[in-house]
UniProtKB/TrEMBL annotation:
It comes from Natronoglomus mannanivorans. GO terms for molecular function: DNA binding. This is AbrB/MazE/SpoVT family DNA-binding domain-containing protein. Residues 61-88 are annotated as: Disordered. The keyword DNA-binding applies. The lineage of its organism: Archaea, Methanobacteriati, Methanobacteriota, Stenosarchaea group, Halobacteria. Keywords: DNA-binding. It comes from the Archaea.
Amino acid sequence: MSKSTDERGRIYLPKDVRERFGDQYRIVELPSHVALFPVDEDPLDGLRAAVGDAFAETEVDELKGQAREGISREVRAEADDRAQGGEE
């Protein structure tokens, strides 16, 4: 799907996308692109729905730390790849 911004920089998502993913998104700037990620009203409920009880014994702060570390590794790897001329 391709969308353009209007004169004020807004992007309008089609109704079927909003119905499927909701009305609230997190905008993530990465070295090579920008991504939109739907945000659940309660992100932990969304995580639990996606993975069941896989993290039932894990504290919220630990989950946040692990997620941040994983994202940092991915961003560093992508930046290293780009610096080495691995752009696609």
